[in-house]
Amino acid sequence: MVKQTIESTLDGKIRCDACPVMCYISEGRSGACDRYANVGGDLIRVDPLTIIENRKDNGGQLVSFLPGAEDKDWDGDLVQAKRSFVTAVGAGTTYPDYKPAPFIVSQQERGIDMVTVVTEGIFSYCGAKVKIDTDRYLGPETSAVRVEGEPVGHVTTGEYGSQMLSLGGVHHLTGGTKKEGRVTCDALLRLCNGEAVEMTIDGGAGIVVKAGTAPIINGVEEQRMRVGCGSATIGMFAKQWAQHVDEVVVVDDHITGVLSEHQAGRVLNVPATGIRIKGRRSTPGRYFQVAEPGTGWGGTNISDPLSILGAFDPKTAYPGLRLLMVSTTGEQCGYYILDENLTPVLQTNLPEDIRLSVEQIAENCEPAVCSVLFMGGAGGSLRAGVTRNPVQLTRSVKEALTYVSCGGAPAYVWPGGGITVMADVTQMPANSFGYVPTPALVAPIEFTMRLDDYRALGGHMEAVVPIEEALKVAERKVAQRQDVPWPTESQNFKWQA
User: Fold this and answer.
1) What is the pTM of this model?
2) Would you give the distance in Å from CA 456 to the centre of its chain?
3) Tens digit of each residue's pLDDT (9 = 90 or more) over 385-432
């Protein structure tokens, strides 16, 4: 546990200055945020300082320099196998803003003196971008997303095969009612810490979101995201279908595809079938707005695919014509043969070749999953913990002299002014996030650079300590994830060799 500076006491209580709430904490109790406690008269950071280790005994993978080296007392030094990185998880904050960051640690990376500035930022300007891999209709764009009846965000523009939510932000945290702010902060905290959050969308669905797992929409767990839009699906599987059916319709909320009219069908010499699609024709074989959005076939509101068909053209269609209708995930399909009246009749037995083609659609669909990206703006007080001249840090980040990470995970830094970061919460150590009751989210952020660059931007050089000092107080050590780059690697910087 990390000791914090004690500003003052009152009747045996310690005043915590780690956030603007300024709790007075009795012996044996914790503050309103549950992050700081009074232990024997000392103000203690409750959550453990977390270190990431790249070590074989902690799950890290080593690659020997020479064959058989593992049998000759080779210890992995040539690949920097015993490295440690001090994250900001459990480090504490810079509040009341004039203090240097809790840990400013130096270490060598392949002979280069490096420094990492570690702090837990108090983010009022923060939120989560949620990507939900599904074609199911969640709700109209800009519709409110609610938790416990309170608005915590909105539906934003959809992406290819995914629905998108924008949650949190300063207006929900502090611009609405007190309950709205509390519920928003709690929902963000749970989402970013990998917990499931139940939401409802105005005019749309109920959904359960948990980072790294499949979404549950209206009580049903999603299995897969679409292989592509209806037109793309036609293009991908046209060769298989052209041999075994006369017509294929791939139902999709965005672009419904028709094999015989599509360019892929024409190249393969698929003859016209006289099929008619209800919807707005875009280009040959591609139709918009065949149905309303929904949770049925291909992200539409239909349960009967024949409802999007008009009468077949009797000049072209013929009895016995074979028609496959399928969704973009392969979860729904129907095989029909036109009768004497040119009416599609559903066949109970799916031909083997058609069954295999539908299964191939499903095989090419990726699993449905929820992605949660923390997003926050690193403001003046946080930057002041790094340097006395905060704009210099911003410039150093934009010039790729300083690498930004969140709990050791890479952070995407948005272009433009300020330091606006976005990080995948599943790449961060468990329980990386906390909160303060202002309300605001507390998130780890690290700035790594060469020691000379830190000195040049006006850093708090008097507060720099060897990494060994931080390791002494670290109570939690986690292994490096193999899919996450090591923060001090030269490849993260403009000056890389």
Assistant:
1) 0.87
2) 34
3) 999 999 999 999 999 999 999 999 999 999 999 999 999 999 999 999
Q: How far apart are CA 12 and CA 25, in angstroms?
A: 9
Q: What ranges do the domains of the chain cover?
A: 126-223+369-378, 225-367
Q: Both tokens of residue 414?
A: 């948005």
Residue 42 above 90 pLDDT? no
